[in-house]
Amino acid sequence: MPSSRVILRSQYFIYFGILGLYLPYFNLYCYHLGFNGSQIGMLAGLRSATLVLFPFVWGALADRFRRRKSIYLLCNALACVSWAGYLYTTDFKPMLVLAVVHGMFYAPLISFLEAYAMDLLGEDKNTYGRVRVWGSVSFILIVTVLGHVSERYGIALIVPLILAGAMLQTMAAVALPAAPVVRPLVTKSAPIRINWPRTLVFLCCGFLMLVSHGTYYGFFSIHLENLGLPPTYIGIAWAIAVLAEIVVMINSRRLFSWASFESVLLASFFIAALRWLLIAAFTSPAIILGSQILHAFSYGTFHMASILYMDRLTPGPAKTLGQAANNAITYGLGLMIGFMVNGALFDQLGARHLFVISAGLALVGGILFRWHQQSLPDTMDDAS
Fold first, then answer.
1. Range of the domain at 301
2. What residues contact residue 14 under an 8 Å CB cut-off, 6+ apart?
């Protein structure tokens, strides 16, 4: 039987392979269906809204009843069933309903995976990037190949491909361990530690960081197409970003032995601001590709440090809930606001002005994080 790490890597590989189909191309697919910026922003925003509530719901149930695997399998299966609805409609209102229903079950998957990773890695958590990197490898393969394939067969191909990937992930999830670490049931007092000032400020800053990513995740592919660049280039641009991410993830142990979580997070905020400014300022295909290398920091180091930092802040019996909170506030609420605001302003301002606003948000997040770190004592109790 495969080791727990191999099984975990396979889950990341499939999950982010599906994301490689969805993230660069689904909004572009909607754009080709004739949806305007507001409609695309609403679709993406509603889906992200499910990331705010449902990771908390499913995470609390998993920790309360110690049924992480059962709930993870259930959510995978129902995400498959609900996604199949996209095969039968291209109308805006039914797709809005599908976005919510699918999001209800898709939303908790990544927080469950992150909780599994923290448990299975144990004392070796600084090697998290070496496990997570398999998701990045998959993302690169998918976005590169699909960019070429979509030129030949059309962008609508992503709908059945995502369904096939979701079915594969559900089947592969059966091999996950039922209970990597036996934990006591969550008590009423355990989640209270989520309310530490340090944790709340971190979540607020992470929220701003992900709002700033709304332009990128929601409209970057559309921006490139409007510049006259072909789908193959779009796929390459996304692939370069994730390739840069892989480099830092492979070197995660070295990175976190050299720098603290706080230092890595702070640098990520400011590099994200620089990245958005470069995309806003230049239309040169070469410069845009070069700016994608900064994804190593605006996403790669930020994501790794966030997972590890939240794991340190969260009490042992509520690890799943802690990662759910992180994903809900940042990738859920942050991207929801980012998508909806960008969707509302896209037709009026265009992507370049929106990237300038994104740079400002990332900068504010970094300044707030730095200010709060300076205002707190140097010592910090671990919650794990």
1. 4-178+190-375
2. 138, 165, 168, 169, 172
Total count of domains within the chain: 1
Within a domain: 78: yes
On whether residue 185 sits in a domain, the answer given is: no
**How many CB atoms are closer than 10 A to CB 120?**
20
The answer to whether position 382 is within a domain reads: no
Say if residues 41 and 91 touch (Cβ distance below 8 Å).
Answer: no
**pTM (two decimals):** 0.80
| 3-class secondary structure, 117 | helix
Tell me if 383 is assigned to some domain.
no
Segments in the chain below pLDDT 50: 180-192, 195, 379, 381-384
For residue 46 the two structure tokens come to: 């509603």
pLDDT in tens, 223-268: 999 999 998 999 999 999 989 988 988 888 889 889 999 999 999 9
DSSP string, 252-308: HHHHHHHS-HHHHHHHHHHHHHHHHHHHHH---HHHHHHHGGGHIIIIIIHHHHHHH
C-alpha to C-alpha distance for 130 and 251, rounded to whole angstroms: 8
Reduced 3-state DSSP string for 123-146: HHHHHHHHHHHHHHHHHHHHHHHH
Question: Which CATH number characterizes residue 299's domain?
Answer: 1.20.1250.20
Rg (C-alpha) for the chain, rounded Å, is: 20
The answer to whether residues 69 and 176 touch, using CB atoms and an 8 Å cutoff, is yes
